[in-house]
Write a structure and sequence with these properties.
The complex is a heterodimer of chains A (about 280) and B (about 290). With about 280 residues, chain A is an all-alpha fold. Chain A has twelve helices and no strands. The chains are: A mainly alpha (about 280), B mainly alpha (about 290).
Amino acid sequence: MTNQNPRPLTLTLFMWGLALIVAFLILFPLWWIFISSITPSGELFSTPIKYWPDHPTLASYRYLIENVGLLPKIWDTAIIVGLSILIGMVVSVMAAFSFARFRTRGLALAIGFLLASMLIPDVVTARPLYDFLRSVHLYDTYTGLIILYISGILPFTILILQNYLNDVPVSIEESAAIDGCGFFQSLIYVTVPLLRPALATVCIVNFITCLNNFFTPLFYSNGISVLSTAITQLPLRDNMYAVPWDLVSAMGWIIILPIILFVAIFQRQIMEGIMAGGVKG
Amino acid sequence: MYASRKYLAIAWILVLPALIIRVFTTIYPIIETFRISLYEVKLLQGIREFVGFDNFIQLFQDSKVITSMGFTVIFVVGSMIGHIVLGIALALILNMKFAGQKILRTIVLLPWAMPMVVIAMASKWAFNNDYGLINDFVRWFNPDFNLDWLIHTNTARFAVIAVDLWKDLPFFAILVLAGLQFISAEMYEAAKIDGAGPIRSFISITLPMLSRNILVLSIFFTMWRITSFDIVYAMTSGGPGESTALIAYRVTTEAFTNLNTGYAASIAVVLFLVMALLSWLSMSAAKRVDY
């Protein structure tokens, strides 16, 4: 690239300046949450804010483990999110395969129905769904929550997988059939492995969607407590603001830290997933 | 290969689990919502009485519902203007070719990946007058600044919109960025040869090429804003008074706290019809925009 002018230094500085402002606006609040979580609760009431505490402590975290039952909540969250992603994936692959390979009027209607149901907001169905779950004894059960979490990720997942499958030639499955492969054998051993990149992408996006789900556990569970609802139910402090900020920040950071690591590791797949779907579940 | 009759049965068996789950979690309850919106239900007294459209007549005279609708409009319009203007700016920043591009994109993904409820809980403290992050930051520049954001109507509303932007603007920008990357470099080169500067090519190439993409994105983002719930639940609980109670928050309060399930259903029906109408209108508008 000898014929290209070297970029003027001012332009480079300008770009870095803009980038630093954006990074600061996003990272500084997160830093503040972290600092608050390791600050003794007495020191939190200081102006100006100390961006490094005089006596850093893990007391808030210990309190969460000993008195708030943090570990069982992490366990509940892991079970619900993990099973929802797994079962949701199986259900979605089946449906996406059917939609991509069989073209009948009835199935076209079924796709239309699935997509249209995406337009129904949680809040419009909340109360009848709550009453329904109670009547079938699924309220506040793992099964009930997992079904609802799956329901939330199904349309997005089916859409992405179906688009991907449309580009996978049927001829691969045909040659598998000629080689004596049965229908389900061919689905499991031929088609699913071909889907792997798309599966990875939806898995990652669904993980974030499920982990961030707040509406479902808030209204359809009570005893089972996942992390996203637990942060709103911490024991109140008797300060005039009724915000247990020491505990909220610690709990917040416990939720945020894995997400930061996760995003850093899977940045490329997440970008692809977001751009492919343009939908947030 | 899959044309035979035997396969048609298999096809339906494969889609059945997905269909059953969606029917029971969305279709059945929304039909119920429409049905009970015509009833007066008092769960505690065990009253369930058909009242026709009375709930609907009542809700348009209920000052709480009207306040909620008003703030929802302000929230959606304010937030969307911010999303579009700042979102395009941020997308351009993310598109800059410089050494920090990859790490900047990773940082920008973070707010999207975090639960709104965590951000909203933190915001409750961040907007506190004495010990919050926001005023501490303002005091770097103006040491005498004092304002308790969340106890005054206008500043509380502003704060809610600002937090919503912090959380979702980066996501919007990434989707605009996806659109930006479809514009071919040759167009910019051709414009450069014709003597267009960077501002001219932004106005004459980038904006028109992005318009359809941004319109479609805005439809989705508007729909999500109309049903926003987490942010005010965790950040303001609808306060001060009822001034930041978004319509979704109003529906759940009526349904789960006040136990007026019939009345709550009627508000939900209005909400749903408004959304359906809006998405139909904007989808047909989006079809017409063709650059």
